[in-house]
Design brief:
About 70% of the residues lie in helices and about 0% in strands. By secondary structure, the protein is an all-alpha fold. The chain has a two-stranded parallel sheet with strand order 1-2. The longest helix is centred in the middle third of the chain and has 71 residues.
């Protein structure tokens, strides 16, 4: 057998396959199919974007509601503290004004005005479970003896301290 010259026309990269397997025709799409596929992709993308935006909006709304809740609680607590301070200041101011305006009456009949004040206060505070009344130590027993019957006579069922 005579030697033949090697011409490098055979490729050893892929094993021999039948011609039908090697040459797979490229898929071809019509213009209508491409337009329909593009429209479907855009619709899916839009739906996904809208769902994502709705989720983000709901999250922001929830965070805003939580922030408002915290602010309302803080404002309510601050208001309660201010109201308590104003009430205390009003009682102190009233006490000083009475002592300046009516010193002789306060020395002569210290409990008369006090009893009237307690009767008016009890009428407004019937629903309160407890009332705290502060008086000088020297007047404590006399005030207690007069206030308890006044409270019962005016329909106050709470505790007087």
């Amino acid at each position: 057998m005579p030697a033949r010259r090697f011409l490098f026309d055979v490729s050893f990269d892929e094993p021999d396959k039948p011609a039908s397997v090697r040459a797979v025709p490229e898929p071809t799409f019509t213009q209508a199919e491409l337009v329909a596929a593009r429209a479907q992709g855009e619709a899916e993308g839009r739906a996904q974007a809208l769902a994502e935006a709705a989720t983000m909006t709901e999250t922001r709304v929830a965070e805003a509601i939580e922030a408002l809740d915290r602010a309302v609680i803080a404002a309510t607590e601050a208001r309660a503290a201010i109201v308590q301070s104003v009430e205390q200041d009003a009682v102190t101011l009233l006490r000083h004004c009475l002592a300046k305006a009516l010193p002789a009456l306060c020395r002569k009949e210290p409990l008369a005005e006090f009893e009237d004040f307690i009767v008016r206060t009890l009428a407004e505070a019937l629903d309160e479970p407890r009332l705290v009344i502060r008086v000088a130590d020297a007047l404590f027993d006399a005030v207690q003896e007069r206030i308890n019957p006044l409270a019962k006579a005016n329909g106050y069922s709470g505790k007087l301290v």
